[in-house]
Design goal:
Elements (H helix, E strand, L loop, with lengths): L14 E14 L2 E8 L2 E7 L4 H8 L6 E10 L14 E12 L17 H6 L1 H4 L3 H23 L3 E2 L17 E3 L7 E3 L5 H9 L4 E9 L11 E10 L3 H19 L4 E2 L6 E3 H8 L15 E2 L1 E5 L4 E3 L5 E3 L12 H6 L11 E5 L2 E8 L4 H10 L4 H15 L6 E7 H8 L30 H6 L10
Parallel strand pairs: 3-5, 6-9, 11-13, 12-14
Antiparallel strand pairs: 1-2, 1-4, 2-3, 4-5, 7-8, 9-10, 10-19, 14-17, 15-16, 17-18, 18-19
Helix pairs in contact: 9-10
The protein binds aspartic acid (ASP).
Aspartic acid binds next to β18 and β19.
Length: 465
């Protein structure tokens, strides 16, 4: 059986088998040292000249070769311990060595934190970049947090349900990624900007409480905290008010931080609530950074931002929604919405969670009657025919008895970025896109064959320069 490097101390005086990569080899003339690396860290191995054949074999080892090694574990001599290594009080004296795979010299250093290596190289060789301890930690902690959230939500009767990736164009404010249909000539699927409509239809279906780690796709430019493809912790609940959804999420955020990141401190509990108006007046942004000490990397200042205007003026002088067309107005503004009056003053039930100046989540109570939803689109100047064409399925569903419902989605990449103290969401996503939306490792997007285009009824027309 294989022993993990971090566990060698439990086998003092005994023989172990280690499997992993050669991190470094240090030749001290007679003695050859290597650090062997697996996902738990490093262990120091020493090859002594007495075993000539083995010693010679070890002298050929190079960084990133994959090896299987046997050896006996002993305490390191006093003063030679390495407190930075989990196994640093011990070392292994090699008794056998097998090379499972040789490796060419890697194009990037995988033992540093990697922050000074160019993005192009890191992304092209992402599978090597992910070998570095910092990226191993980020992805493993991401998995731990996801597992914690899953368990927590399951204990609160949430059901994890997947929704389609091949979907229909929806109006969520960003540009859609489109997928041409082979069978339906001239028609397109859209990749989901979020599962918004599906999750509301789960409520109509009586699922009561839904969640999912949902992949969302928006054709917009990447930034430090944005990717064209990202993950939301998406939730929806039936028979709830704004207070209920906020309470469930506040509790989940607090317990996640306490259990997963005990070294972090939440500035204020319950999370303070700031109205949109106040936030704009006081901080000039709707995702204020309210930290009292911005030098403390372990300080988390959550706040809710509420009472956003439902509509804003378009450049053409019409109205559009500020956040989510499926939201309900605040109850006291429902009459105005239905009558389509005082539009500028209608407030939405939208609640956003800001954390240290980043928006990490947002949601709302929804319009669960067809009249309410239709009024939103009417205010936006949609003709009845267009409303039916785009949202007929939602209006129809609501006429079959929809429970009052509401939900939220967290930008879980952004949340993980902040928890891990990273400056960019690419550091917590396994295979992110670069700034111009490319996947340098797979070389996507790429051209496709004329046959594929023909099947899809597509002709490429070059843009006139
Ligand atoms: N679908 C919304 C979004 O992606 C979140 C929500 O309102 O639940 O921002």
């Amino acid at each position: 059986m294989r022993t993990l490097t971090r566990d060698i101390g439990a086998h003092e005086g005994k023989e172990v088998t280690l499997m992993g990569w050669v991190d470094v080899r240090r030749d001290h003339g007679k003695l050859i040292f290597i650090d062997i690396r697996d996902w738990t860290g490093l262990a120091q191995v020493v090859f002594i000249p007495k075993n000539k054949e083995l010693h010679e074999k070890a002298s050929e080892l190079r960084s990133e070769w994959v090896i299987k090694l046997t050896g006996t574990v002993q305490r390191r001599p006093k003063g030679l311990e390495n407190p930075k290594m989990a196994s640093g009080s011990y070392e292994v004296t090699a008794t056998g060595l097998e090379v499972s795979a040789k490796a060419v010299t890697p194009p990037l250093d995988v033992s540093s934190n990697g922050l000074d290596i160019s993005e192009e190289v890191r992304m092209k060789y992402r599978y090597l970049d992910l070998r570095r301890p910092r990226m191993q930690k980020n992805l493993r902690n991401r998995a731990r947090v996801f597992r914690f959230i899953r368990n927590h939500l399951a204990s609160k009767n949430f059901v994890e349900i997947e929704t389609p990736i091949l979907s229909k164009s929806t109006p969520e404010g960003a540009r859609d990624f489109l997928v041409p249909s082979r069978i339906h000539e001239g028609k397109f699927y859209a990749l989901p900007q979020s599962p918004q409509q599906y999750k509301q239809l789960f409520m109509v279906a009586g699922m009561d409480r839904y969640y999912q780690f949902a992949r969302c796709l928006r054709d917009e430019d990447s930034r430090g905290d944005r990717q064209p493809e990202f993950t939301q912790l998406d939730m929806e609940m039936s028979f709830v008010t704004r207070e209920d959804v906020m309470a469930v999420n506040e509790e989940l955020l607090i317990t996640t931080v306490r259990e997963m990141y005990p070294e972090k401190k939440i500035q204020e509990i319950p999370f303070p609530r700031i109205t949109y108006k106040e936030a704009m007046e006081k901080y000039g942004t709707d995702r204020p950074d309210i930290r009292k000490d911005k030098n403390d990397p372990n300080l988390l200042a959550f706040c809710w931002v509420i009472d956003f205007p439902f509509f804003e003026k378009t450049e053409e002088g019409g109205w559009t929604f500020t956040h989510n067309p499926f939201s309900a107005p605040k109850p006291e503004h429902m009459e105005d919405l239905l009558a389509q009056r005082n539009i500028a003053n209608i407030l939405t039930t939208q609640y956003d969670i800001a954390l240290n100046g980043f928006e990490v989540g947002g949601g709302s109570i929804r319009n669960h009657t067809s009249a309410g939803l239709k009024a939103v689109f009417n205010i936006m100047g949609f003709e009845d025919e267009r409303i039916m064409r785009n949202f007929g399925h939602m209006l129809e569903a609501f006429d079959f008895g929809a429970p009052p419902h509401g939900g939220i989605a967290w930008g879980i990449d952004r949340f993980m970025m902040l928890m891990e103290g990273e400056a960019n969401i690419r550091e917590v996503i396994a295979f992110p896109k670069t700034g111009d939306g490319s996947d340098l490792m797979m070389d996507g997007p790429s051209e496709v064959s004329p046959e594929q285009l023909r099947d899809l009824h597509i002709k490429i027309v070059e843009k006139k320069k």
